[in-house]
Amino acid sequence: MDISTVDELLTTTRSVRKRLDLTRLVEPEVILECVRLAMQAPTASNAQDWRWVVVTDADKRAAIADIYRSVGAEYLANAASTESDPQTRRVYQSAVGLTETLANVPVHVIPCLQNRFDESDHLVAASSWATGGLLVRTTVRVTVAVAVRPVPSSAV
Question: What is the pTM of this model?
Answer without folding.
Answer: 0.66
